[in-house]
């Protein structure tokens, strides 16, 4: 009965793909199958010593790093990220996080995580946006991996400027000491999966890892991002 009612409603209020704008078919959610097919996967979770892991070599100790999709200007992933961050389509985060989590189950390192922790937004920015896109991704990952979600322990205490047009050094400088740890007992001696939307230089994630390991030096950290710039 519920299915019939939903089908009837969709005749008057059809759902559209958040990427291409075409009407979604039955059993499609947020993104149509065609767009899903063309999203470029990295498969870095199956590659030890991948380019993302190399970003952190000599900087901070990280167990593993992966991203779901490649991101570059003008590609389909840019549209997806834009819809997620600036068009209020937070359901994209959960869906892609869940699908990413299903892929991460193939990795012994990622399946061993204990808790999933999103990179937080500064409170004023989150209030303006209405949600934290990284937390939505983390929720999907938590469901797929069947792990605990912790959105409280990592706190952003400094509001940073946009990183888009900054140099590598300026990005690093812009992200120093921007996080604090609350309730460290909840993440001590845990393998933490740190989640963000897009990784470019890794400066923000590096700062978060330093904060986590400084407060809980017996913890381990891995990183999962929805997208990364092409390598």
Describe what this molecule looks like in 3D.
By secondary structure, this protein is α/β, with parallel strands linked by helices. It has one domain: Rossmann fold. It has helices at 2-12, 33-38, 51-55, 76-86, 91-104, 108-111, 123-129, 133-145, 168-174, 203-215; strands at residues 65-71, 115-118, 148-149, 154-156, 179-181, 191-199, 220-229. It has a five-stranded parallel beta sheet with strand order 1-7-6-2-3. A two-stranded antiparallel sheet has the order 4-5. Strand 6, helix 10 and strand 7 form a beta-alpha-beta unit. The relative contact order is 0.16. The model is unreliable at 1-13 (pLDDT under 50).
Strand fraction equals 15-25%
Briefly, what CATH class? Alpha Beta
Fraction of residues in helices? 25-40%
| Approximate shape | globular
CATH topology: Rossmann fold
Q: For the CA atoms, what is the radius of gyration? A: 18 Å
Structural class given helices, strands, pairing? alpha/beta
In DSSP terms, counting alpha (H) and pi (I) runs of 4 or more, how many helices?
10
Number of DSSP strands? 7
**Tally of distinct domains:** 1
Which series of helices and strands comes N to C?
HHHEHHHEHHEEHEEHE
Overall mean confidence score, pLDDT: 89
Physical arrangement of strands within the biggest beta sheet: 1-7-6-2-3
Outline the biggest β-sheet. Answer: 5 strands, parallel
Throw out a few tags for this protein.
7 strands, 10 helices, alpha/beta, 231 residues, five-stranded parallel β-sheet, single chain, Rossmann fold, two-stranded antiparallel sheet, disordered N terminus
């Amino acid at each position: 009965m519920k299915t019939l009612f939903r089908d009837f409603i969709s005749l008057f209020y059809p759902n559209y793909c958040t990427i291409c704008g075409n009407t979604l078919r039955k059993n499609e959610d947020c993104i149509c199958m065609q767009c899903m097919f063309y999203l470029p996967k990295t498969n870095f979770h199956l590659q030890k010593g991948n380019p993302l892991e190399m970003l952190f070599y000599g900087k901070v100790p990280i167990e593993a790093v992966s991203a779901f999709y490649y991101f570059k200007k003008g590609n389909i992933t840019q549209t997806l990220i834009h819809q997620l961050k600036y068009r209020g389509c937070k359901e994209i985060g959960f869906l892609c996080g869940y699908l990413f989590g299903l892929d991460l189950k193939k990795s012994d390192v990622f399946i061993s995580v204990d808790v999933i922790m999103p990179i937080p937004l500064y409170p004023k920015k989150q209030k303006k946006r209405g949600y934290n896109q990284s937390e939505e991704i983390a929720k999907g990952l938590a469901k797929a991996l069947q792990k605990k979600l912790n959105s409280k322990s990592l706190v952003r205490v400094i509001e940073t400027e946009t990183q888009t047009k900054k140099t590598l050094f300026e990005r690093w400088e812009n992200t120093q000491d921007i996080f604090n740890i609350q309730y460290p007992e909840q993440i001590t001696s845990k393998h933490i999966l740190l989640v963000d939307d897009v990784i470019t230089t890794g400066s923000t994630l590096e700062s978060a890892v330093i904060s986590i390991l400084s407060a809980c030096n017996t913890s381990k950290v891995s990183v999962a991002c929805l997208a990364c710039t092409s390598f």
